[in-house]
Amino acid sequence: MIEISSSCIGCSKCVSACPFGAMSVTNKMAKADDKCTLCGACVQVCPVSAINIARKEASADLSAYRGVWVFAELMDNHHARTKGTKTLRPVTHELLSCGRRLADELGEELCAVLMGHGVENLADSLAACGADKVYLADHEALKEYTTDAAATALVAMITKYKPSIVLYPSTYIGRDIAPRVASELYVGLTADCTGLAIKNGNLLQSRPAFGGNIMADIICPNARPQMSTVRPNVMKKNPLREGAKAVIVRENMALNAAGARVKIVERRVEETHGQDSIAGANVVVSGGRGMKNKRGFEMLEDLADALGGAVGASRAAVDLGLMPKPHQVGQSGTTVSPKLYVACGISGAVQHIVGMNSSDVIIAINKDPSAPIFNVCKFGIVGDAGQIVPKLAENVRKLKK
Description:
Elements: E1 2-4, H1 13-17, E2 23-26, E3 29-32, H2 41-45, E4 51-53, E5 68-71, E6 74-76, E7 86-88, H3 91-106, E8 110-116, H4 123-128, E9 133-138, H5 147-161, E10 165-169, H6 174-185, E11 190-193, E12 195-199, E13 202-209, E14 214-218, E15 226-230, E16 247-251, H7 273-280, E17 283-287, H8 294-307, E18 310-313, H9 315-319, E19 340-344, H10 350-353, E20 361-366, E21 379-382, H11 385-400
Parallel strand pairs: 5-8, 5-10, 8-9, 9-16, 10-15, 11-15, 17-18, 17-19, 19-20, 20-21
Antiparallel strand pairs: 1-4, 2-3, 6-7, 12-13, 13-14
Helix pairs in contact: 5-6, 8-11
């Protein structure tokens, strides 16, 4: 419940900040009515800290919480004809595919949360990715992502509709909003998950721990919603359901764009071709310390060119200056999930394997027959990558003729 102390000065800032019009001021004292969802927007703007939220301890009866939600992240559309509009980030399809499996096992709905301005046209795309229902928050204040506006809207919707599970992408936006929402709702959050399953009705969240040396399984049995951020390119995408339609639930929010603490003045996009190319490539040819020098990576570039793919690198190779950071594959780099992954001179540290083991086919080339990389590959070649890679590139070109 909302608690308002006698230090309230009746400034009305909480009134304009409330997205549901639940706050009012009478006789210089603020009060909340039954439309309040405990989203916390009023607490943030109160200049004298007169407003507090007293939250009840988690109840053992969690039956009121149902449904699997996916936060649908948007990105700028760079196509010439649609430039200036928004489109779904590809990881949204991955999360909805994973969410579909979880929702079906629980016998619950799969829902997407779509926030922005003028983005209702994307609801059909979310339905095609598997969503049964789309919660739409369309407001000028949500046109560009800001933590305050997005978190306030999402906390309000979660409080109102009580989903059992909420999934976010482990992107810069997902990593920003998820902990903010978890803090406001007093629930747990598991970051950078690489596996999700249902166990005894709870969400079993798997992620690397202790520097990637072990995998930890985490559950949150006593509070809802259960929340996770999930690394891109880890979950397999289901086929699109062409022509599918989702139920759209429109949320009318009174967000105050003028009252935002952060305003976007200018946007500059720095090109990161390496990261973008390996994240979306169907073929990735990666090199590690065993490639020895930049000449070794020139060989990899030649093989990648023959296969129509992109070049990646292990952390060891990046640390040696053989490739720039955007090309790094692994726990502290980019997670990739291509149709073909070729690991050359990479021993197979757990931190690297976490970033590529969801690839369809993995080929490993290493002169050490006991290298851990051979435990995850489908085809293994024991030998010097510096001698084998040029021959592979030559044979690939011959086959393509």
